[in-house]
Design brief:
68 residues
């Protein structure tokens, strides 16, 4: 896994992008991001790369949402 930095022109653009990624995870895993994140934080899910990326995207989503 590699670290990637993406720059957006506004917080709203960032929110749209991360929301699209969350939607892809949700459709693929048949689980809402909030439910996934709660289970992940409780240690009920593995630390596979997909889940780590999903959890990070959900954290970013919550941070951006708090800014707006």
């Amino acid at each position: 896994m590699f670290k990637q930095t993406i720059h957006y022109s506004s917080p709203l653009d960032a929110l749209v992008a991360v929301t699209k990624r969350l939607s892809l995870y949700e459709n693929q895993q048949k689980m809402k991001s909030e439910d996934f994140f709660n289970s992940y934080n409780q240690g009920l899910l593995s630390d596979e790369a997909l889940f780590i990326e999903w959890a990070n995207d959900y954290r970013h989503y919550k941070e951006i949402k708090d800014l707006l």
